Amino acid sequence: MGKAVIINGNPSLASRLNGIIQYVEQRLLQEGIEIEHIRVAELPAEDLIKANFDSEAILHANKKVKEAEAIIIASPVYKAAYTGVLKAYLDLLPQKGLSGKIILPLFIGGTIAHLLSIDYALKPVLSALGSRHILGGVYAVDTWITRNEQEGCHLSEDLIHRLEEAAAEFAKEIKRRTRLSLERVE
Predict the structure, then answer these.
(1) Dmax over Cα atoms in the chain, in whole Å?
(2) For the CA atoms of 154, 157, 159, 163, what is the dihedral angle to 10 degrees?
(3) Does the keyword field hold Membrane (predicted)?
């Protein structure tokens, strides 16, 4: 039905951001969207730091991006911007590597004060990479998510509502894009 890649820019494996990602992923799977993952923190650090465009791991990650109709970019916010490890990976995408992609940002931060980090820190970089279809995204405050060892993450009702709306819009856009592609083939 369509393919999306989740680029997780979190340097930590244990994070409330994972609760957001898992929630949206489940919603998209229910809509028949195929999901791939790129955990930027699992890419070779030396390749990221030295901008090794020819690294097998980087080429493999970039191939996932190229083959997808849509991309979720997820990151915690540190110092009013997304993580450095995410920026290091975005710098390794081809010049117009996000051209034609539907983008859904999912950010989490310590306070509402960094709400505009999606608009002022991320969107200019996405535009430079060719993206023209960037959805509004969801910014969450980490207190809206509680972690429980037995049940995983518990999301606030307001956050669930916002994630539902974002996932529905994202799925709708992917399906529309897939349908248009199929019509062109016929």
Answers:
(1) 50
(2) 100
(3) no
- Structural domain count, the chain: 1
Alpha-helix residue ranges (DSSP H) falling in 41-156: 45-49, 56-67, 84-90, 117, 123-128
Overall pTM surpassing 0.90 (yes/no): yes
In this structure, the strands spanning 102-109 and 34-39 are unpaired
- Which residues are CB-neighbours of 49 under 8 A, at least 6 positions away? 88
The structure tokens listed for 78 are: 């540190």
Chain center to CA of 97: 14
Domain with 132, as residue range(s), is: 3-185
Q: Which residues partner with 146 through β-bridges?
A: 154
| Three-state SS at 92 | coil
Where would I find the H helices in the chain?
16-30, 45-49, 56-67, 84-90, 117, 123-128, 157-185
| SS3 assignment, position 81 | strand
**CATH number (domain holding residue 115):** 3.40.50.360
Tell me the average pLDDT across 49-68.
98
Given this model, what pLDDT does residue 179 score? Answer: 82
